[in-house]
Amino acid sequence: MPGDRLVLSPTWRPRIGQVIGHGLLRPAYRLTVQGAALVPPRGPVILVSNHTGFLDGPFVFTVSPRPVHFLVKQETFSGPFGVVLRGVGQIPVDRTVGDRTALGRARTVLGAGGVVGLFPEGTRGRGDVSEVHQGATWLALATGAPIVPVACLGTRYAGQGRNTLPRPGSRLVAVFGAPLLLAADRTLPGRERMRRATETLRIALAQHVQAAAEATGLELPDALAPAGADAG
After folding, report:
1. Does 223 fall in a domain?
2. Is residue 175 part of a domain?
3. In a domain, 174, yes or no
4. What would the mean pLDDT of 208-219 be, rounded to a whole number?
5. How far apart are CA 148 and CA 63, in angstroms?
6. What one-character DSSP code corresponds to residue 180?
7. pLDDT category of residue 229 using cuts at 50, 70 and 90
8. Which of 45, 75, 103, 108 is spaced 20 to 30 Å from 232 by Cα?
């Protein structure tokens, strides 16, 4: 399939995307990256990040120490922007169902020793990781890839709408955490095994985000304006 060819593209494609991202983000914002050395330099890795603002995906993609294939909502893959996303190896995902095609492509990337990125909360919100979906858990258990938690901070403030960009000059911070290996308890039924592993992931990411917020002084937004709102 055409999409598969893009997903399985050499790492230079997402690297070009990272160069473009730096060119767009660095002049507009103050970018800070911490803990990048904690990301394993080779082999399969799953990045999982909290999700509050429109720039979370472009920001984490850009500052990742390794080229990364993010699962991105399929609605974004339309028009010129969709062409760009496919060109840099991002993976469209249908969030309304358990998208086996997207997970299969992500598993193929991991099988080739690449990096996959997900926002397990599924949509933009407060970013405190109070709930997560099971896609990252499934990938980790199916491939044995370590999960690296990422705290993405500063991309949205309280009262701002889902599509609001941070003000120019704002401080954007990405904090990479220590890798986590999920282990499945084979004594449990399949669904309970997945639920517990997912809860382990959720707690680890939530704690990492909270610690990063306290260390950087960047608080999580405590409210979300309606989707059409723009608070500047």
Report:
1. no
2. yes
3. yes
4. 94
5. 14
6. B
7. very low
8. 75
Q: Detail the DSSP E strand segments found in 74-205.
A: 91-93, 115-118, 147-153, 171-176
Q: Which of 214-218's residues contact partners 24+ apart within 8 Å by CB, and which partners?
A: 215/175, 216/32, 216/153, 216/173, 216/175, 218/153, 218/154, 218/171, 218/173
3-state DSSP assignment of residue 30: strand
What is the DSSP pairing of strand 147-153 with strand 171-176? antiparallel
User: How many domains are contained in the chain?
Assistant: 1
pLDDT at 101 over 50: yes
The CATH number that applies at residue 162 is 3.40.1130.10
Cα distance between residue 31 and residue 64, in whole Å: 12
Is residue 216 pLDDT above 90, yes or no?
yes
Give the H or E element holding residue 25: helix 12-25
Which three-class secondary structure state does DSSP give residue 141?
helix
Q: Which residues pair with 46 in a beta bridge?
A: 116, 147
Q: What is the pLDDT of residues 154-204, one digit of tens each?
A: 998 877 777 788 999 999 999 999 999 998 888 888 789 999 999 999 999
Residue 21 sits in which domain range?
2-216
**Cβ count within 10 A of residue 76:** 14
More confidently predicted of 100 and 36: 36
Residue carrying the six token digits 């599509």:
163
Structure tokens at 222: 């405590």
Q: For residues 87 and 92, what is the distance between their CA atoms, to the nearest angstrom?
A: 12
pLDDT given at position 206: 96
